[in-house]
Design brief:
The protein is α+β, with helices and mostly antiparallel strands. It folds into 2 domains: 75 residues, Roll (Ubiquitin-like (UB roll)); 67 residues, DNA polymerase, domain 1, CATH 1.10.150. Strand 1 and strand 2 form a beta hairpin. Helix 3 crosses helix 6.
Length: 149
């Protein structure tokens, strides 16, 4: 199938089977590899993107079902975003595999709530797994960003 996706404000043509997930279209056809394949069951958050500004699991979303919705991936940030800078400054990144999913989850959170408290931050990150960090520094980075806003 020929599918037109709007990814990071740019219309992109994709040739993919009807069964292709958004994750497969992004990583394969479009070579946007910032969105990671983790569990492939929507549990780990590594494939998190924004669809029309709301969190979505690219591994569970059929590319053909996206239609004219706006897909935002971590590649949308041509310069470091506030969220990315906060994670770096707090040494919250270790291997980096989960980082794009955390960046997208925190980006959505801060757009919705510029000054979230710890409980709200932890709830917003509940769908993202990190095998390296234990989450302490990730939450601290988000708290610092909320404080500095």
């Amino acid at each position: 199938m020929h599918i037109t996706l709007t990814v990071n404000n740019e219309p992109r043509e994709v040739l993919a089977p009807a069964s292709a997930t958004l994750l497969e279209a992004l990583r394969g056809a479009l070579e946007l590899t910032g969105t990671k394949r983790g569990c492939n069951h929507g549990v780990c958050g590594a494939c998190t993107v924004l669809l029309d500004g709301k969190l979505a699991r690219a591994c569970l979303t059929l590319a053909v079902d996206v239609g004219e919705r706006e897909v935002t991936t971590v590649e949308a940030f041509s310069e470091l975003s506030d969220v990315q800078r906060a994670l770096i400054d707090s040494s919250a990144i270790q291997c980096g595999f989960c980082t794009p999913g955390f960046v997208m989850a925190l980006t959505e959170l801060f757009k919705r709530n510029p000054k979230p408290d710890r409980e709200t931050i932890r709830a917003a990150l509940a769908g993202n797994l990190c095998r390296c960090s234990g989450y302490v520094k990730i939450v601290e980075a988000a708290e610092r960003l909320a404080h500095d806003r």
